[in-house]
Amino acid sequence: MSLHNTSLILEGGTFRTIFTAGILDVLLEESIQMPYIVAVSAGAINATSYVSNQLKRTLRILTTYRNDKRYMGIGNLFKEKSIFGLDFSCDVIPNQLDLFDWDTYYRYPGKVEFGITNALTGEIEYVDALTMDRKCMMLRASCAIPLLIPEIKIDEKPYFDGGIVAPIPVKRAIEQGYKKHLIILTNPHGHVKKQDIKDRLVAHLLKKRYPNLVKRIHQFYEHYNEQLAFCHQLESEGKALILKPNYALKDFEKNVQQINKSYQMGFQQAKERLQEIKQFLS
């Protein structure tokens, strides 16, 4: 399916994005290649499997390794200062255990960007995902949740999760000239962000080292709610089509059966709305 002037927007949300994986696999089955993709945080992980045209890869990896301590576990803190095994998940898995199709990925005919937050300036930067190295440093940076994952250095600059500044980066797509947007969210209808104690704790611990980043963390819930409202405004104007879960999903879901269920929810929703999606994109 040949598309023009349309974008794909992928929100993050750690393991909630398995819902996104189900939708993207339907797009792969239908040979729908979006000309422009912008993703942040775990949304970027889903984008890689879509861009490399590897059906069910995200589901397979999460169900296989979710409860593997090399993938996620306290022991990683001693080695990498991260709850996630970054080298295991971003190097060993894609390059040794479940091979990532780098050749297809690099040949993707569209434009793909990951959002990463500069810890020094507190501003989001969008990087060309199709130039990513094979240790996935861009991906690590976009998924670097403060306190759970340390800052990731790219060109000697420290970066964190792009979702801190632009949790739903549709405005980036508009800046790039795209007029219609397929937006995949990972929270259900009616979800509203509120500032919680975790945000305040993160801000307190990072305020001396990264004061500009901390300002963004304090504002995160406002940014999210504003960007979500903007997405709904675009949808009401016929400029966006939004897909989102039917119910709330857990950020760090452990139950493999529930992970499969969440994937199937995305897959079935995309199947049921496939004609609507195709009509919107065309």
Question: Short summary of the structure?
Answer:
This protein is α/β, with parallel strands linked by helices and 282 residues long. It has twelve helices and eight strands. Helix content is 45%, strand content 14%.
Write the layout of secondary structure elements.
Layout: E1 6-10, H1 18-29, E2 36-40, H2 42-51, H3 57-65, H4 76-80, H5 86-97, H6 102-106, E3 111-118, E4 124-128, H7 137-142, E5 152-154, E6 157-161, H8 170-175, E7 180-184, H9 197-206, H10 211-236, E8 240-243, H11 256-272, H12 274-281
Mean of pLDDT? 96
What's the gyration radius in Å? Answer: 18 Å
Determine the fraction of residues in helical runs and give it as a percent range. Answer: 40-55%
* Strands, count: 8
How would you characterize the largest beta sheet? 8 strands, mixed
The number of helices is 12
Distance, first to last CA: 9 Å
Strand composition percent: 5-15%
Please tell me what the overall shape is. Answer: globular
Show unreliable segments.
none
H/E topology pattern: EHEHHHHHEEHEEHEHHEHH
Structural class, please? alpha/beta
Key features?
alpha/beta; 45% helix; single chain; eight-stranded mixed sheet; 282 residues; globular
What can you see in these coordinates?
The chain is built from 12 helices and 8 strands. With 282 residues, the protein is α/β, with parallel strands linked by helices. Strands 1, 2, 3, 4, 5, 6, 7 and 8 form an 8-stranded mixed β-sheet that branches. Strand 5 (152-154) and strand 6 form a beta hairpin. Helix 9 (197-206) runs antiparallel to helix 10 (211-236). It is globular. It starts with 5 loop residues before the first strand and ends with a helix. The mean pLDDT is 96.
